[in-house]
């Protein structure tokens, strides 16, 4: 999750941020798609790499922490109602949709658990970049994404147990430990490093999004390679599930903002905070606790939600002015 920086007053600065953000949301899905294709055609090249997925996710989360500052938490204090609504919408709509879609499509236990797990994950790390492109409320987006990530160890495991337990055994306690180790601790470590060595970190901030993107691509390649044999028969059904999950999440998230009368910019932020998931975390947890096949929905989601997010953001941004002067630093996932 990138942290927006204070933008300059000149137009060129905003234009530069816009170009960087558009480049990220264009290149990242292509990179992940290429990685998935590589895992599919050469699964043997990634044999035995499954154990590295949690560590790779830790790298992504550490990079996320490096992009964060205390300013990212100020929005929670300034608008607790809006942030709370975003959190409730995220952790109610997406898990619920995952359960409904799994039942409606008659998914196998492994795939059903994988779809539900994606829904129970925190906000996607690219959600505030897409919100920026949509001329949405970036400050609200950052606040919701930050808090949803911090709360993930407390929320994701019990939700997964409640909704996916009917399909597969879920060790919620072990899942809490894994999220703490692979998400929360790396994020906190990155934030501490940023606070202590910000002057040096600022020099490499431009490289962090691409490091994150490459790492997520590696996760996708490993996940796809692990279930390459089953993909051909299940790919169409998985894509349909992901398409419905993401699309309905975006629509219902926007609807929640409108229903609460948050205003158009905040409603656009809500759409992406609800509809975009941390699919890297979901893939890591599915691989560790279920199977490589259960991680397949996460891999597909990782590609699709960036494509759909960019398309929806472009549609929303038509003839709409930016609601604030802050610009994000693009990132992946």
UniProtKB/TrEMBL annotation:
Chief place where the protein resides: membrane
Transmembrane segments: 24-46, 52-71, 83-105, 111-131, 138-159, 179-197, 209-231, 237-257
Alphabetically ordered keywords of this record: Membrane, Transmembrane, Transmembrane helix
UniProt subcellular location: Membrane
Taxonomic superkingdom: Bacteria
Membrane topology: Multi-pass membrane protein
InterPro entries: BilAc:Na_symport/Acr3, Bilac:Na_transpt, Na+/solute_symporter_sf
Protein name according to UniProt: Bile acid:sodium symporter family protein
Organism for this UniProt entry: Streptomyces anatolicus
């Amino acid at each position: 999750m990138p942290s927006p920086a204070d933008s300059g007053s000149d137009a060129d600065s905003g234009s530069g941020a816009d170009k960087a953000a558009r480049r990220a949301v264009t290149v990242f899905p292509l990179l992940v798609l290429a990685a998935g294709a590589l895992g599919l055609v050469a699964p043997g090249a990634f044999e035995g790499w499954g154990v590295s997925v949690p560590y790779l996710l830790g790298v992504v989360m550490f990079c996320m922490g490096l992009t964060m500052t205390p300013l990212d938490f100020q929005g929670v204090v300034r608008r607790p109602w809006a942030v709370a609504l975003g959190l409730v919408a995220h952790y109610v709509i997406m898990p619920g949709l995952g359960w409904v879609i799994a039942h409606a499509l008659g998914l196998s236990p492994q795939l059903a658990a994988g779809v539900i797990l994606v829904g129970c994950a925190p906000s996607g790390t690219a959600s505030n970049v897409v919100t920026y492109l949509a001329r949405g409320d970036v400050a609200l987006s950052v606040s919701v994404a930050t808090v949803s990530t911090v709360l993930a160890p407390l929320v994701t495991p019990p939700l997964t147990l409640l909704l996916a337990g009917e399909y597969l055994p879920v060790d919620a306690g072990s899942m809490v430990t894994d999220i703490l180790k692979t998400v929360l601790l790396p994020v906190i470590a990155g934030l501490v490093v940023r606070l202590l060595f910000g002057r040096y970190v600022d020099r490499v901030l431009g490289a962090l999004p691409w490091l994150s993107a490459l790492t997520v691509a590696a996760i996708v390649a490993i996940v796809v390679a692990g279930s390459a044999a089953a993909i051909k028969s299940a790919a169409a059904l998985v894509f349909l599930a992901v398409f419905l999950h993401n699309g309905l999440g975006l629509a219902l998230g926007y609807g929640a903002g409108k229903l609460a009368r948050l205003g158009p910019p905040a409603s656009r932020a809500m759409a992406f905070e609800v509809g975009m998931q941390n699919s890297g975390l979901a893939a890591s947890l599915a691989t560790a606790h279920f199977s490589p096949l259960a991680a397949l929905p996460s891999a597909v989601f990782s590609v699709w939600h960036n494509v759909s997010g960019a398309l929806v953001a472009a549609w929303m941004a038509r003839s709409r002015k930016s609601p604030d002067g802050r610009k994000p630093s693009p990132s992946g996932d």
